[in-house]
Amino acid sequence: MSENSEYIVIKAKAQGVQVIGLTRGQDTKFHHTEKLDKGEVLIAQFTDHTSAIKIRGKATVITRHGSIETDE
What we know:
With 72 residues, the protein is an all-beta fold. 0% of the residues lie in helices and 57% in strands.
């Protein structure tokens, strides 16, 4: 794992927010899924295996580049 791995914070603003990790490589595949309840916070990390994180539901996403609110 790289020392420069990027972290993001996801705070659920509604029940049932899904956070899905996607793999690196020739074929992008789901490799991890979490479901958050309203108010829960997840700290996620981009790694050698995780190239993307997909978020479904109403949440605040905070990165070193700023924050964004998802739509429902």
